[in-house]
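If your schedule permits, I should be very grateful for your opinion on a structural question. Kindly check, if you would, that the fold set down in the tokens agrees with what the sequence suggests. Thank you for your consideration; the sequence and its tokens are set out here:
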Amino acid sequence: MTAAGPLAAAETDLAKMLATLQVDARDGEYVFVSAPHWDALPRELAQATIVEAEGPTCVLRREHADARGLDYDFVAAWLSLRVHSALQAVGLTAAVAQALAARGIACNVLAGYHHDHLLVPAARREDALAALLALRGDGGATPA
């Protein structure tokens, strides 16, 4: 229960998660930037942050990194799995990784409380979307 009310039940059944999988693609391109200290990164613009022993990593819109002269080497499209998977669900990440790997598509996964987010090569965005929607078993057709 949250201050806003009860949480929606998260799904744990892999077959149900895959059968109902929807994928949203954010506009723009995203990059990973890292620095030894927070003061070198524009945290206010970060779409995601990860704290590692070597220093913080932020995922930024590419134009924000470019405007600040920040180094990066991977330009990604941001895809969000629109299935409310439980944090303890087993198999969704593996199924997604396997589907993308079969098509030679790199994938970096960020898990949020409500959804999993995938950063895939920007040039392979449409291929990644097709691979993910094919996991539904309905040919990837979008419901009317």
Summary: The CA atoms of residues 14 and 92 lie 6 Å apart. The first strand starts at residue 23 and ends at 25.
